[in-house]
TrEMBL record:
It is found in: Cell membrane. This is Gluconate transporter. GO terms for cellular component: plasma membrane. GO terms for molecular function: gluconate transmembrane transporter activity.
Length: 436
């Protein structure tokens, strides 16, 4: 724990005080952590490389294609059209709530990273068009994405926990939904009221010049193209319930449902509907795509660095040591599950790793203490969202996309995640009182 604390403090100082590039800071701290935690010298670099490869392998295609799609949505005027339609429907006064609802609906079928990349252009289009504070408008929508990621199946961690604890998927979803809604409201729009003065100049790649109304793509075209990845993922998610047993059809849908393939299809469609169809030349479209990748290159490197740090900690076995030392604490099993997940999350940065590691430690308590397995899934899920900071890729996504200082990222993103986690635990304990 002391080594982890030293490394996290060192990382914060390197980035915020010494102004070292975050990717380089992550590499230095990851190597130092590996050596101090006893990983053989010959295996430290292998752990760093594995961590970078593991996290980028699942994200680089999605983030790059998502940035290209976002750039095209902004440059074509589609984002401007979407923002205009939303404001007409709910009024500028309630635009924040409209974005929260959209984020929650989209967040159920989508992984957090994909949802973030898809929704950021929409957030920024509203911010720029109506000159609203970026964090005040954007954080509530991001909160809704984060809550669905931690609490609700079919996301990876809650789905895996349901299986591990032999819980009921539908019951867990219903309980999770009843906790998720107040968590989103309190940690989103309510908390965001205190963040109106945080200065933020969001990432320029999603900023487009105001276009005259007659040059904008149609409303249907704008919404359909921007939300096509969501539509495709929802179709593939519900496909198993259509009763189709053909093995070849199932294989095709599994292929088409892969997030990378979904993003590629969406980008190809957008290239035509928002590019060629709107009169853009392919060279102009290609220039937009190149600019988009340039703008998110540093974000990819920072996320890669956070993956390296996480892998070094996992390879050293420190996550299991932390969990085992906490198991001897005398406290209610639901609180213990939350605490173990929270400490591993704070130490390693990964919500999924925190959730699955904590589950392995407390699985025996669920049976011996007669704990409701559905609530244990949610308790650990809430703990796995606690206090996201510099070792979490989500922290850097939010900081870099919204172009915030470290201090303001802690005040907004880290506090929001901590509120979601605490509200989740309180919700679990309240439900436990009523179902006993």
């Amino acid at each position: 724990m002391l080594v982890i604390f030293i490394c996290i403090v060192l990382l914060i100082l390197l980035v915020s005080w010494a102004k070292v590039n975050p990717f380089l800071a992550f590499l230095l701290v990851s190597i130092a952590a590996g050596l101090m935690l006893g990983i053989p010298v010959t295996k430290v670099t292998a752990s760093v490389q594995k961590g970078i490869g593991d996290i980028l392998g699942g994200l680089v295609i999605i983030i790059c294609l998502g940035a290209m799609l976002g750039k095209l949505v902004a440059a074509s005027g589609a984002a401007q059209q979407i923002a205009g339609v939303l404001v007409k429907l709910v009024g500028e006064k309630y635009i924040q709530w409209a974005l929260v609802a959209a984020g929650f609906i989209i967040g159920i079928p989508l992984f957090y990273g994909i949802g973030f990349v898809l929704m950021v252009p929409l957030i920024f289009s509203v911010v720029y068009k109506y000159k609203l504070p970026a964090v005040f408008i954007g954080l509530p929508m991001i909160a809704s994405l984060s809550v669905t990621h931690g609490f609700l199946p079919p996301h990876p961690s809650p789905s895996a926990l349901v299986v591990l604890f032999h819980a009921n998927m539908a019951t867990t979803f219903v309980y999770g939904l009843s906790i998720a809604i107040p968590a989103i409201i309190l940690a989103g729009p309510v908390f965001a009221r205190f963040l109106k003065r945080i200065p933020s100049e969001p990432l320029a790649t999603f900023r487009a010049e105001e276009m005259p109304a007659d040059k904008l793509p149609g409303a249907f075209n704008s919404f359909f193209t921007a939300l096509l990845p969501v539509i495709l993922l929802m179709l593939t998610a519900f496909f198993p319930y259509f009763g189709i047993k053909n093995e070849n059809a199932l294989k095709v849908m599994a292929f088409l449902g892969d997030p990378s393939i979904v993003m590629l299809i969406a980008l190809l469609v957008a290239t035509y509907t928002l590019g060629v169809k709107q009169g853009m030349s392919m060279s102009t479209i290609s220039t937009h795509f190149t600019d988009a990748v340039k703008d998110i290159a540093l974000i990819l490197l920072i996320i890669a660095g956070s993956g390296a740090f996480k892998e070094v900690l996992v390879a050293s076995g420190v996550d299991k040591e932390i969990a085992n030392s906490l198991r001897s604490f005398n406290m209610p099993p639901l609180v213990l599950g939350w605490l173990i997940a929270a400490i591993i999350r704070i130490s390693l940065g990964s919500a999924t790793v925190a959730g699955l590691t904590a589950a392995g430690i407390v699985s025996g308590l669920v049976v011996s203490e007669h704990v409701d397995p559905n609530l244990m899934v949610l308790s650990i899920g809430a703990g796995s969202l606690a206090f996201s900071h510099v070792n979490d890729s989500g922290f850097w996504l939010f900081k870099e996309y919204f172009n915030l200082s470290m201090k303001d990222t802690f005040k907004s993103w880290s506090m929001m995640e901590s509120l979601v986690s605490l509200i989740g635990l309180v919700g679990v304990l309240i439900i436990n009182v009523f179902i006993k």
